[in-house]
Amino acid sequence: xxxxxxxxxxxxxxxxxxxxxxxxxxxxxxxxxxxxxxxxxxxxxxxxxxxxxxxxxxxxxxxxxxxxxxxxxxxxxxxxxxxxxxxxxxxxxxxxxxxxxxxxxxxxxxxxxxxxxxxxxxxxxxxxxxxxxxxxxxxxxxxxxxxxxxxxxxxxxxxxxxxxxxxxxxxxxxxxxxxxxxxxxxxxxxxxxxxxxxxxxxxxxxxxxxxxxxxxxxxxxxxxxxxxxxxxxxxxxxxxxxxxxxxxxxxxxxxxxxxxxxxxxxxxxxxxxxxxxxxxxxxxxxxxxxxxxxxxxxxxxxxxxxxxxxxxxxxxxxxxxxxxxxxxxxxxxxxxxxxxxxxxxxxxxxxxxxxxxxxxxxxxxxxxxxxxxxxxxxxxxxxxxxxxxxxxxxxxxxxxxxxxxxxxxxxxxxxxxxxxxxxxxxxxxxxxxxxxxxxxxxxxxxxxxxxxxxxxxxxxxxxxxxxxxxxxxxxxxxxxxxxxxxxxxxxxxxxxxxxxxxxxxxxxxxxxxxxxxxxxxxxxxxxxxxxxxxxxxxxxxxxxxxxxxxxxxxxxxxxxxxxx
Length: 564
What we know:
The protein has 564 residues and is α+β, with helices and mostly antiparallel strands. 53% of the residues lie in helices and 14% in strands.
């Protein structure tokens, strides 16, 4: 069953006193099963954005403890900062990450909001998807008037809090608790110190746009150019620059790279230059990969490169390291969430993997090595595609080879995952064999577990075979149409793919002998034999083409020498 994972991103009205911030994050980490992903304090905004994740019950408890601690250590009557705010815990949004629906996330948010109101006596407004009425969906409406206008606002029956007393809490203010999709907080740096000019650009691009008075004296709205974007301009004394502070509320509608480029256009039209950007909090991996592909495509370069390279291109294209280093392991949510022991084999160096394989431990074994050989084989085909995409004189064909490189990357990444899955499958067999077997019931439980583990140990190498075979299409195409100087690289890829498939099939066959479902085994072995046979034929055909190409190149070389 898929584990339910939820994220919480509370914003606290303290960004300068690290002792206070640490007390709040300690309260979060006091809850088992919660992982603190990011703590991002801002001195000028006097605000800290904290991100943590886990299963709903644990995250709910951690959020409540954080709000409680903030109410103890932050005094809003003394707070000053650049960012709009109304409470010690200003906002506390919950975001579904995996295995959980928005409706379930709304229920979590409202339950926490109720506890804050009842147990802490803090007025709470529910916003975004957790809102009880339409006008409260927009956080700006809930926060209008900020802390300074809160006492008066609470006297208005239309702004009675959803939870908690309609009374002004001088020390803690009010808190907005919401449920929303993943939001990216993204600031764009300008070569100006003018807040007014920064705001002008922000109004140009934000969905809300700007309000004007027309010739008839009537109020009118000119919408901005970017959907699902909120933005304001401000001056950051810490950096000595003005910024466009943006919340991208739906990055499937307006991704970070589109927002960045649009601000560049609008700034240029006003005689201002964008110098870089700043990510506040975390960002999904896909957003960074899409940005990297976008900028490579603008250069007419292949996008079938590693994730690391795509991220690097995204970072330098948007100047995300201008103010401080951009560290993917600390800023990309999937990387931050990944446990250190996950995918431990593919995280090793070449030497480390070799030494681990050579050790007296039975895993990794032939299955993992076979999968890695396949990944390297496809990688060689991908390399030829990338080399061909920017070969001199072939500029018009860059997209053709980029598409092949993308296909290759997908296959090699899947084979890398299978390197670890093969070892995990072996460990599963060992673990099931250690289950107790004293009673008849325990024996049956152990038997069933062993059979499930064996079936998995068969299917993993079979999946390696199927996946690796897809790589032949890329290798063959690169031999036939790719850079002629690299045909032997592609041929080596074909050899590696064939070796991968034969090695994986050996694992399928040896593990099949212990599975009781003989009909399943018979069918799978036949399919495996077909793949192995076709792989050997593919290798043979590719090597013949390469031998022929080598002879042609040698003949051309001899002619050149004679004529020279």
